[in-house]
Amino acid sequence: MIKNTLTKAFSDQVNKELYSSYLYLAMSAFAEQTGYKGIANWFFVQAQEEMAHGIHMYQYIVERGAAPAFGEIEAPPTTFEGIHDMFVKVLAHEQDVTESINTIATLAMKENDHACYNFIMWYVDEQIEEEAGVKDILAKLTNFGSDPGFLYNLDNELASRVFVHPFPNR
Ligand code: OFO
Asked: How far, in Å, is the centroid of ligand 1 from the Cα of 97?
């Protein structure tokens, strides 16, 4: 059975993933209201991914025979200065998530729980991808964000993102 320290760490991470989903839904709603439907779509897909992460971690705790702890999910901010500001906040948020994932990996090593370590390593890789994707969008926004034509094209580009369940067989 999974140790209490790891159950607590994974339960906290479930909460963070659900908060991430909530945050990205709030960002999707803001983008929608400001007329950026493609960007709203990107955030909506991101919210679904985060929900899938939270459920995946919840299932893992249960599979390992432990009872997850449930805490309050913080309310996300609902207003932003604009599209650039949202992506600045997304990057800071994902960097924070990366730190907590790394902390779980370190704890799993310390507790000599190879299964937990193996499980969390998927998320270590995932965070590299998430941060890289957001950095890419943010760099474009920083360089060209004041050009309405660029924003129009970015909105069209992000409209094509579709949700692909990261764990289709679970
Ligand atoms: Fe779950 O990866 Fe972002 O937060």
From this structure: 6
